[in-house]
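Narrative of activities, Objective 1.

The group set out to show that a structural description can be obtained from nothing but a protein's sequence at a throughput compatible with the screening campaign. Below is one input-output pair from the validation batch, recorded exactly as produced.
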Amino acid sequence: MILSSILAFAACSAPQVKPLDRNPLQSPDGTLELRADVLDGVPMYSLKHGQSDVILPSRLGYDLVGDIDLKDGFKLDDVSYSSFDETWTPVWGEEDHIRNRYNEMLLKLSREDGVRMNIRFRLYNDGLGFRYEFPMENKLTYFKVADELTEFALAGDHTAWWISGDYDTQEYNYYKSRLSEIRGINGADRPYNASQSYIGPTAVQTALQMKTDEGLYINLHEARVLDYSTTSLLLDDKKMVFRTALTPDAQGIKARLQAPCVSPWRTVQVCEKATDVLASRLILNLNDPCVLEDVSWIHPVKYMGVWWEMITGKTHWSYTSDFPSVKLGETDYSKAKPHGRHGANNENVRRYIDFAAANGFDALLIEGWNEGWEDWFGCQKEFVFDFITPYPDFDLPALNEYAHSKGMRLIMHHESSSSTVNYERWMEQAYTLMNQYGYDAVKSGYVGDIIPFGEHHYSQPLITHYHRAVVEAAKHHIMVNAHEAVRPTGLCRTWPNMIGNESAMGNEFRMDINPGHTCILPFTRLQGGPMDFTPGIFEQDMSITAPGETGKMRHTIGNQLGLYVTFYSPLQMAADLPENYARFMDAFQFIKDVAVDWDKSLYLEAEPGEYIVTARHPKLSTLNAGRLSGTSGAYDFVYAGGRPHDVWYVGGVCGENAHETTFKLDFLKPGVSYEATLYADAPDADYETNPQAYTITHSTVTSADVLTVRMARSGGFGLSLREK
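Output recorded for this entry:
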């Protein structure tokens, strides 16, 4: 297989026939070896893991708009090497410190016409990052990219977990197939999305997880995407070569650059075990350190929301049926007759506040609070919301005061309807309003096709917009949770007020989510940063949640509990309705107790699409950070009797096939007894026939014990371990 791939690859261009036998760079542990050189004027690189080829000799370069391109004609002026080793502390994360250790090689290239381009390679023990750098001393000053020609020539027809290439959305289920099978599957059953732009039959999105026949895990992604467009990957399935496919702007330009500048990092993660993929911090490490001097205002959040009832159709975002169209500033809502199904009304919001506060939650998200929802969807209105004017039945000052009296904050909702020009017009006033009422977090949304017209969600102008929103929010000490925005690429290290993102198919897609979806996302989407998946849906039958709705979600209650541990996010939602939780309060206890920020994480067992089992130790200093007064459930759980008790949480989820996991508890303190509370699928649980069947068992365990837990189909479990 490897020989045939090399022969096929060699036919594509003359420079690639030659081996790369100069300029080796070893990873710190010596496992990975990179080689990079200029052959016949073409920059190229290759990567090996031990004796196995990961990336065969692959081209680097650009096609530019105009008379100049960056494909060939280069000579290698200089090669320099360096090493770096630091340990940095994240503001929030899966552990309290991260080691950033790599060996680096910098190639300085030039051409006779005065063009200069450098390529910087960083080789870690778990993978490679490389980027293009354009120095100031250059014939190129301002230039436009027609295509980036970065290639990833693979050494075999690997198994891959992938979603269709798209310039506007990642909200798709994953496929599992051989690379050679992508063409025959791609695009066959793409569900409807409010904005989508299908790229082609062999285009897939990053992060792309693959596994070789020899059992090596390879992941292709990107890091630090700033002032540049997001890339998909376009496969030549005859040669098994991926090439970057940048998102074009409204004029078809892939990127507009001005020297000095750098591209995003292109990444190749290489791991021997699936659990090592989950433990990798490659993407975070390739981002810049935190730029905020004061991060004391950034804190983890466990929240509920007036949201699921709108998603399921039980209530509406809109206030009235009187207006076929709305012009803000001209439409008089005070004279409108309410249609009676507006969810964000005073009485309903107080009901949610009461339930959330009584159960130890930090905050409550409220959607549909502001004027304009009557005709927002699908109209592509440039001026759609002002983000400051509430509906008549939403008393913003009174509800905010009521929430604060209960020790909670409210979370603001800014649905831009993808009119980014309008959002930027109102952003300063909206953030100032949040400061006035003590909001410190916002959920922004980008549903629909982008305005300015013709732009894509992942084009360079939109990347700039998303970043601008985060930077402006930081000036107001506001944390941002962006939905339908670009997938994260580790920028939360630099701007830790990026506390959450969606950018994938989450629970709001209900019946469309395939079993096993949540066993893939930690290998793909979550590699770049946390996801607001909105877990915790206990009522799978939508007809019970919202009369008139039909269909059932495909998971067990145990599965939803396991997500609070297997999906890392400092922003975790209990997404179901209070009345649904009231029927399962004993299981709801795990959601109340589980932490959302950690000082240590252990990945006990994993296989993409099949199962994940994770153990985490809470960062005690942040357990109560989000609440204005009182204590959260997790805080009470840890500080019983006024002294700290050691606590661990273990969570597991599995896919279409049931799975029995066995794991040691040797991460516990030796010689100490722990109270174990296991929330597990019942023996007869099944996502199709009996999704709400669970058991809760209590036992005493020590670090010498080994536990075996069975997960039903699309099931899971949550386990709390508390020092006695």
